[in-house]
Amino acid sequence: MSVPATPSSTDGPQPSATDLARAVLAQDTTPQALLSNALARIDAAQHLNALISLNAGAEAHAQAVQARVQAGETLPLAGVPIIVKDNINVRGTRTTCGSRILANYTSPYDATVARRLVHAGAVIVGKANMDEFAMGSSTESSASGPTLNPWDTARVPGGSSGGSAVAVAANLTPISLGSDTGGSVRQPAAFTGVYGLKPTYGRVSRFGLVAYASSLDQIGPFARSAEDLALIMNVIAGHDPQDATSLHAPPQFAAGTPDDLRGLRVGVIRESLEGNTAGVESTLNATLDALRGAGASVQEVSIASVRHAIAAYYLIAMPEASSNLARYDGMTYGDRSTAPDVNTSMTLTREHGFGREVQRRILLGTYALSSGYYDAYYSKAMKVRGLIAQDFARAFADFDVLVTPTSPFPAFRHGEKSSDPLAMYAADVDTVAINLAGLPALSVPAGFETVDGVRLPVGIQFIAPTLKDEVLLTLAGGLEGVGAVQMEAPAGY
To answer: What are the positions of the active site (predicted)?
Structure first.
């Protein structure tokens, strides 16, 4: 794809990150021009509320990249504009986590992923909207207001990384970063029709990611092609001594071809075949037919323990959240409510600073960890977590990848589930088990379902064994080659 010297802000789908970087290195365009284009597109899409803030230092970073290119540096992300979720620290920018309690917090340091992006020549344009402290599946709980789905603005984009997903789906930037604790990259990717990758736990450094549930959180990218996923993963993955959970696994990502699908052993998780809408079911069947046509073998496999994944997940995530969010007391940083004494000040700070969903999870998490209930809830949930990991390991003895729908339904309407927490939690039924097991998984935009006259994207989730993340990108490239990936831009974007 040719890249004009000054890309228009409204000329339809934009070039890929790979093409943009090549154009900058060839000096066919400049980082400043790409930044200007991204800012124009962001301005034109303000109604989607995909961003919480812009990076005031972006212009200086673009100029620095231009100087490095002119000096002869070969930068993998040269000049590529990128948006990162607002729970990823970027020095000199606000990091609010979508919460009132951090509304005025400016980060004094860079997360490892942010530092690696800048080193690779990317220009961080801004911070994406999100469910408060990443607790949600719809990006409705943000203190900055809800993000809208570009396919139908009456519907949610998924969550909690809804802003990051919309940034890519609406062509604001070609790639973005989110975080995934129980599906928060994959589910919004499915709802907005883009790729969303949750890497193996520890494959991408969490240093500088504001913690929700530390044993589950993982940073992951959104993109519109397997090639772009490989490009950014080769930059952000890899060991980091600042993260004690970081793994020694040098990244070797590349998009595959249809030939790579021949002989692939695909297991369809039987428990995921229940409760899906007709459009999700037909999309899954079409994807499986494409795999068979390319020479893959496809069989069902039972992983019975995943039926308990939702319960186990929330009995682990909420206690970890309760512990992690104890630091937001108004004493050290963040907003503080004044009062005659420390205890009242702390109570008011947390009451006014946290939204209802965050308060609910803190209370439930504290309860599950309290004396007399730890063994009844948290300890048992951890045992179920171990069973889930064992069941996945057994399945991978017979299969190279496993497959499920990413979500049993496409994007739902704003407000449809927000008054029923249990219904909202159940939206993650196909994704949370992967985080419990620490596995890599990729949501592939594979089809559409028409709901109330509106055409909505459907995602299919592929799961690989631990540290076999590269297999997922090989698979994605192969699916692109056989026409099984349905990548479109929403009308008007």
So the answer is: 85, 160, 184
Contacts for 390 with CB less than 8 Å, ≥ 6 apart: none
DSSP code for 106: B
Residue 331 neighbours by CB under 8 Å, 6+ apart: 342, 346
Contacts of 486 (CB under 8 A, 6+ apart): 193, 445, 446, 447, 448, 457
The pair phi, psi for residue 435, each rounded to 5°, is -70, -40
DSSP-derived 3-state class of residue 223: strand
**pLDDT grade, residue 186 (50/70/90)?**
very high
Rounded CA-CA distance 351/335 in Å is 12
pLDDT digits 0-9 by tens, 363-393: 999 999 887 888 889 999 999 999 999 999 9
> Of 424, 445, 480, which Cα lies nearest the Cα of 186?
445
- What number of other Cβ atoms are within 10 A of residue 311's Cβ? 15
User: In b/e form, how buried is each residue of 120-146, taking b as 16+ CB within 10 angstroms?
Assistant: bbbbbbbbbbbbbbbbbbbbbbbbbeb
CA separation for the pair 474, 256 (Å, rounded): 4
Fold of 1-493: Amidase signature (AS) enzymes (3.90.1300)
Cite the active site residues: 85, 160, 184
Cβ atoms of residues 403 and 269 within 8 Å: yes
* Residue 382, token pair as written in the block: 């951890």
This prediction's pTM: 0.95
Measured torsion, CA atoms of residues 56, 58, 64, 65, in degrees rounded to the nearest 10: 170
| Residue-wise DSSP of 241-310 | TT-TT------------GGGGTT-EEEEEGGGGSS--HHHHHHHHHHHHHHHHTT-EEEEE--GGGGGHH
Coil, helix or strand at residue 196: strand
Q: At what angle do helices 226-236 and 17-25 cross, to 10 degrees?
A: 70
Listed in sequence order, the DSSP H helices in 341-413 are 342-353, 356-369, 378-395
**Residues 21 and 80 sit within 8 Å (Cβ to Cβ):** yes
What is the C-alpha to C-alpha distance for residues 437 and 31, in angstroms, rounded to an integer? Answer: 40
* Residue in the block written with tokens 């349905």: 486
Burial of 5 (0-12, 13-18, 19+ CB in 10 A): exposed
